[in-house]
Amino acid sequence: MELSLYIADAFTNTLFGGNPAAVVPLQTWLPDTRMQEIAMENNLSETVFFVKDGNDFQIRWFTPTVEVKLCGHATLAASHILYTELGYAADTIRFHSKSGLLTITKSEQGITLDFPANSPTPGDAPDDLFEGLNITGGLVFRSSFDYMVLLDSQGAVEALKPDFGRLAKVPARGVICTAKGDKADFVSRCFYPQSGINEDPVTGSAHTILVPFWAEQLGKTMLFAEQLSRRGGKLHCELQGDRVLMTGTAVTYLKGTIEI
């Protein structure tokens, strides 16, 4: 069987920036084990698969080791490929996922993802959290996906040097560290050794947690965010009730075929 495969850098307008995702359009679903094998072979933080369903699409995301319920940058990459490579003409794309309906819109500003908000609540630090981050403490919050640690400054976020073996023991999808930004409204770094990704370059799903938190802290709903990974990412975000809107762009890196 021959399948098309694309790689696009998401949440960036520069090649080799943002977060790369592999995009595999399908006519019908492959077995779960085969999609996981393809994601493992791609060895990117996410491989996204989608299947046309009437006027809409079904969508699923896999890290090299597990399937996840929500992924922002790979959804942006898939939308970018639909618009630029697969002839999708409408301004709106509707993806049905394990996190519900995700509506994508295209405008002059970029591609906007409409995702469910995932507000964090205060919690206690589990074993290995602070030790895994190599810090002495911080305010801890919990969402349905991740733990989130609030630090004092952007410099503290930049200085983190996690012990990923220890951090992988934290019982969650991963760990987000955040602080008020020096220039951006807020900054973050996102660690997912539990899911086969030590540090994710740009994490859309993490911003469904970060945006409602910082909207409350800063008293505004329009927010500019920076993820401080080596590749870096910039997101224009908005909180609309129980939804988070994230706008970004993507750049195609690779177009090819795979044989399975």
TrEMBL record:
GO CC, sorted alphabetically, is: cytoplasm
Q: Per its UniProt record, what Pfam families does this chain match?
A: PhzC-PhzF
**Source superkingdom:** Bacteria
Translocase listed as a keyword: no
Q: Does the keyword Isomerase apply?
A: yes
Signal sequence interval, chain numbering:
none
Q: Name one molecular function that GO assigns to this entry.
A: isomerase activity
Keyword terms of this UniProt record: Isomerase
Active-site residues, Swiss-Prot/TrEMBL: E46
List the PANTHER family hit by this protein, alphabetically: PHENAZINE BIOSYNTHESIS PROTEIN, PHENAZINE BIOSYNTHESIS-LIKE DOMAIN-CONTAINING PROTEIN
Under the heading NCBIfam families, the entry gives: PhzF_family
Q: Which family does it belong to?
A: Belongs to the PhzF family.
Name recorded for this polypeptide: Isomerase
Q: From which organism does this entry originate?
A: Flavihumibacter petaseus NBRC 106054
